[in-house]
Amino acid sequence: MVTTLKKAIAEIASLPESDQEEIGRKLLSHVEKLRLLRADIDAGLRSLDEGKGKPVDIEQFIDKMNRSHGRS
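Above: the chain's sequence. Below: its structure in token form.
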């Protein structure tokens, strides 16, 4: 385990149990999101390696993302 994580866990251990539980739930949620993101990235890289990539118009993509998130 890296030093920073060890320090963080030691600090968390000194907090009340309810705070420890909340931090633990948030940390586990964050770790799960990272795992899913890494899996998506790996799948994308495999797809590119298999020649399944296609060109993207970045301006069009940004416009589409902005519209779908209510931005103009």
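The longest helix spans residues 17-49.
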